[in-house]
User: Fold this.
Amino acid sequence: MRDLVIVLGVMAMLPFILKRPFIGVLVWTWIAILNPHREAFGFSVSLRLNLVIVLVTLIAFAASPERKQWPGGKIAALFVGFIAWTTLASLLAVDRPSSFQFWFDFVIKMAIHMILAMILITSRHRLMALVWTYALSLGYHATKIALVTIYSGGSIGQLAGFGPSGTMIEDRNHFALAMALLTPILFFIWRRAEHKLLRIGALMLIAAAILAVIGSQSRGGFVTMALVLGYLWTKTRLKWLTAGLVVVGALGIFAALPPELKERLGTITAQLDKGEDRYANEAPELDESFCLRLAAWHVGWDMTMDSPVWGSGLRSIQSPIAATPYLSPDHPCADSPKYGVRAAHNIYVEVLSDSGFVGLGIFLTLLAGSWLLCLSVMVRARRIPGMEWAADLASMVQVGLIAYAAGGVLLSLAYYDGYFLLIVMVVCADRLLREAEGRAPARRALPDETPPGPREMRRRRKAPAARPLRA
Assistant:
């Protein structure tokens, strides 16, 4: 029954997508982030619903009379350059079939999704629709895992799957980072929502995201979420009151944590206690998880040294054909049964081994440039009446980028849709801001597409009736 509801619901959206391709971008975002068909247990799990939405959206985009214009800017160009270089790296990959499979399943569809979004987001209404779709899609997973965390007393961290199966956030560490990216967007909704119930809902989802990270037992997720919450605390008005509430809440949560989770948290700083000596062969207290990550980084570096310009191809570090020759029997973790071909566990090593120093350079420039663009939007938007929302959104996207850059040190999430959607948000906010500044021509949406908000409706009702002109 659940499968039928999901499939019929998606099919019901097709006529609306054919009429307005931007609805296809929203449905595409919903499926890419939430993966509703993965929440069922029948025939819908194996269906390529996202592929159906992709094809219908592309047809609607090509046939739509709406004016199509690239948003411009260096960040949008860098994104296209990064996708082009990863495509070249796939063509030259050591394990070409595996590389192209990942390129088709994740990279190219993600790229088309982001490009269409940047072209079709031509108004604040559309940008806010994307923000809400992103927040509610990830918010569903946050709520689900938060409830399971409460029910299990925080003892679910060793479960195999947290996010939808077969997706980038299935792993608990990746899921925790996705929650850290979600939290500042929810904070933005809390600050800008006009209805009290919406603000309360945003706060509840923030609490759910925090509980989901606790349930994941991801040490990197804990640190990343702490960074995000620390920054968001500086944006609150009643800092002493909120600090007291946070301390009391943190103490209460810590007291309720299971012993194995407390022990795991205690190992966060233990890696730095003895410096390099900790990873000597005779060190019995060596942390296997961290050591295996170091081993994967060594493999990625050695692979890059053999192909420094364009790398070894997408997901080459996880390919037995490409990565096995670089496993060293002399590594401190070589005796571990888990030692072998593994994920990079680092977005920078992942991109480096995938597409070489050139690809990593583009990736880092895109990340740093997006952060600087957020700063630019924050400064410029506050000078223009009515554009304060853009400053708030850019500020929260900036927090998400910091979380991604920090949390990605221990995770393989370089091509995650949620990260690139943050970049799309700031690129579109910058374009709308340049239009308001008169530096770019306005890209108009359909005239009946942007209804007035509640404040505008109240203002119109309270406004005196216009007097007729006298001859």
User: Anything to note?
Assistant: Residues 1-68 form one domain. Residues 274-286, 465-471 have pLDDT under 50 and may be disordered.
